[in-house]
Amino acid sequence: MSVDERVPVLVVGAGLAGSSAAMFLGLHGVPPLLVERHAGTSAQPKARGQSWHAMEALRIAGVHQRVRDAGYDVDAGMPIVIAQSVAGPVLHEIVGDAWPDWSHLTREEMGMASQEKTEPILLERARELGARVRFSTRLDALEQEVDGVRARLTDLTTGSEYTVHADHVVAADGRRSPLRRALGIGVHGRGPLGHSVAVQFEADLSDLVGGREFALFYLQNNPTLADGATLVSTDRPGHWVFMVPYDSDAGDRVDYFTEEHLIACVRAGVGVPTLPVTVLDATPTTIAHQVADRFTCGRVHLVGDAAHTMPPHGGQGGSTAIMDGFYLAWKLAAVVRGWAGPGLLSSHDVERRPYGALIAGQQYTNMITRSRPELADGTEDPPVPPEELLFGYRYPDGAIVPEQGEDGARLEDPATATGRPGSRAPHVWLPGGRSTMDLFGRGFVLLTVSPRWVTAAREVAVRLGVPLHAERLPAGDWTTRYGVTPNGASLVRPDRFVAWRAHDEASASELESALRTILAR
What we know:
The structure is a single chain. This protein has 521 residues and is an alpha/beta fold. Helices cover 28% and strands 24% of the residues. Strands 1, 2, 5, 6, 7, 8, 14 and 15 form an eight-stranded mixed beta sheet that branches. The chain has an eight-stranded mixed beta sheet with strand order 4-3-10-11-12-9-13-16. Helix 8 packs antiparallel against helix 9 and helix 11 packs across helix 13 (508-518). It is globular and about 75 Å long.
């Protein structure tokens, strides 16, 4: 197979995970080629919302404000309720008009842009950083070799075929992931959990929602609809999405997906039998719970729905996809640019697969609580406090140097965490209105009070050719939160996770040894 083009990284799929991976690869100096079989980005207003930790990552890429402006003002709140219909009665309110106050954990607020608006923003930034994006391009075959991967692609507009040689491939090709299947990677989990039709419609619900135009309704005990029906607002006023459950065995019924039937379902969900409704689109979808058995196979790395598919209850699927790209990109860049060994990439599976399983399990538990109580059988995961899920997850055995006494915990209370290796670097306000989070994102950062550690970091950065910057800070709250003494130091990875700590006087050899371990050199 002749090679027509060579690229450092080929990204397959332009959803949130693929677009994020392309953007962050460009940020780290390795602009990829991204291909997508569809003619453009998603036209569905799904995967709405960017969680606080995702907004931290988007700030690093310089697009957090674009994403925030694309959604509605989060100060307006977004009520999440369980009700019989939008008109009531309300059975339970999960989130009221105010979001949780986590200002002690992060400097960010969450965003509320839809996938429809977020993907173009990520791709625009990826292009600004050098990425090339080709729509209407299908991956037909992939062959792994000793020095890379050969991919056969087809331009669906012209029908022409060509071959690309890539050092690595990011598989962001969705829940059914032809790439994952071709690699022989299985999946585990609870599998398909139900089928729904995503009905996009226009209707004036202002008399019902009354100032709460941004809302999410889980419908239960509705005499017309099966449990699991969900109605959610979109970025457009008067534009809503209604998830209508249906029995897949009824899929051959001609009348089931007619406009007349869908309007009747919408009216039942809203609770107004005569509501004027305009159906804009109706797309069948499947809710599933599955996690890939491996996230890495040779030079191919899975992200997003290709790696983990979860019920939408909890709204973390889109943010997790963005973060997959964020956490993988710096590792791929490190290997491609030669300042890390290929073994670093094995940490993608070690770190992200347990977290993907954790998030998927939590959203399955949320689905039972919010819309499918009949599925409760005692095997579901116990609920995890959301602040631990977003800010307190850990990588105890990944690309870090664990300390003595490491207990292997995957979660911790972020409010009392002490910056041990494998944990997210704490947000601490610094003099001048900066946060510690403002220091991270482009390379390794060594936080210290001691000028000797600054000198040691400079020596090691030159000797290893690693992007390493020492930040000398005055002793204060940050030393307590990071668990270091004035003589010590905390080494933070480009993705804001603490990789190593020193508690003694500066030692360039000790820092070099730690970096070699982390980077598999």
